[in-house]
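so the lab meeting is tmrw and i was supposed to have these ready like two days ago... anyway. pasting both below. for each one the top line is the aa sequence and the line under it is the structure tokens. i havent really looked at them closely yet so no promises
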Amino acid sequence: MFGRKKEKTTLDAQQVSLVEHAQMRIAQKRGFHTHLLISLFLIFFALVLDFAFDYKTDFRPFNTHWSFILGTLLLLLLLTHFLKVYLFHSFMGKAWRETQLEFLLEKQALQVEKLKRAMDKEAALKASAEWQRENRKQNITMIAAAAENNALGKDNQLIWHLSKDLQHFKQLTKGHHVIMGRKTFESMPKALPNRTNVVITRQNDYRAEDAIVVHSLEAAIALAQSDDRPFIIGGGEIYRQGLDYADCIELTRVHDDFEADTFFPEIDPAHWQEVWRENHDKDENHEHPFSFIRYKKIHA
């Protein structure tokens, strides 16, 4: 599995707006609750004074207690404050919703533009790859040993040992670039001798002894442009990517099924044609029967 960078968590403008709006709303509610407590205290204090001194003033045409009028004014002010906080300046009022909608539309436009740039870049890379495939003199070859169920290996190790297959691999790849993923490289005791080892990984700080490190299959193929037949040697994910770039597959088909955690991709007969086969039976040096098979890509 490729290494992943740790992503930093940051607050964007929308999150900051939500926090600030929530803080403002809390302050509004606290202000109203303070007003409520002060009003209730003043009304209670006025009633106590009124009853204590039994003091009346003739307010025509109402002719009522002064405490009642004071309490009415305080309640009217409190009601006005209540309407302002809970009705006219609600947490998600019209103005706030319009601001958020405008922000989201702007953010969506930026995301669309970013996606468009990424798609344009991908299209350019594909066009470049197509041009290179049509104009280059390379014969990019995937080489692998896979079981009948396409098993390649388990726990980053080969499942079988076939001496003729190892000789076949060495004979074909000697003097060429061998392109592989990080796990495949780490499964070997050292870099393959008499070959240019190219290791693909997403880890920016990865170092591989006696090998060149790149960060994509495209970069690895570009690095090997001087080689008339670079080889892609695994693992499973690199093989899957390699199907789009390869012109040839040199496959050792082991005629048994095995339990595995890494698999070779299916070879679609609509895109690949078998052009050569050499069968080998089981013998004292080979526990499983196998065949050397060569496929060539069918170009439209």
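ok protien two:
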Amino acid sequence: MVKIGNIELGDFPLLLAPMEDVSDPPFRAVCKKNGADLMYTEFISSEGLIRDAAKSVQKLDIFEYERPIGIQLFGSDINSMREAGIIADNAHPDLIDINYGCPVKQVACRGAGAALLQDIPKMVMMTSEIVKIAHRPVTVKTRLGWDDTTKNVVEVAERLQDIGISALTIHGRTRAQLYKGDADWTLIGEIKNNSRIKIPIFGNGDIDSPEKAKIMRDRYGVDGIMIGRASIGYPWIFNEIKHFFKTGEHLAPPTITDRVNVCKEHLDFSIRWKSKHAGIVEMRRHYTNYFKGLPNFKEYRTNLVTTYSYDEIIGILDEVEKKYTEMETV
């Protein structure tokens, strides 16, 4: 049984990665329904949170059915992170996660996210302050290092464990790689098999199939796997991996009806959570992913991302279901 603090996650948990502009409550809802064991909010700016910025505060929204769930924070100032940690703690998540892995320029070049891999003492001090104030487990997500010449994640893992974090997720790339090239899990495995390390170690990077998940589990011995981009438009991946682990066989892929139904659920939750207008607009980024691979889908997509009418969207989705179901049965 894998545990983060007192949170029991099963024998080999599958985690949904925190993804900006993706892993909001509507997206998390469909992933939870399809097998995600632990989820996180989108990452939240500590500066935005302590200044009561509406976008940052809204990201604190969590729902009972989502548990266990973590709130993820990022920032470059230790005092601001400590204050944001108190605010996040008061929102009653199951854990607080600190982002030391985001590679994007707007974050890393401001001294946050993966930038802290260049200043381990500051990372340790910042983490320690949040561990002190939190009434729940604190976890960290990071990368192998800043670049190929500074892969310092072994030191990071040991020092962060020593000051009290309860689990560590490692993305198998450096900051310099961004999301290019292949993820290297070698150091992740070394950390998991380091006799000093007692906390759960989760691997992240390039898991897009049940076979790949099994290879990484068996080869590197990690306690669980975090899945990010492969879940966008395809929340079924969590249950597919679990089924493959249990039986060695593949679940049947989602039908067109399955895709349409989950897409509708996602849309309805998005509208309930935000508003009709905002929900419809924000859902537009997901249609291509839900219907990836369908031939001649461009016209439907164009209509889906240009209308503001809920009834029209439902009508288009019904038409998609009818047309492509007929194609499946031919």
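from a quick look at the 2nd one: The chain has a mean pLDDT of 95. The first helix runs from residue 25 to 33. will dig more after coffe
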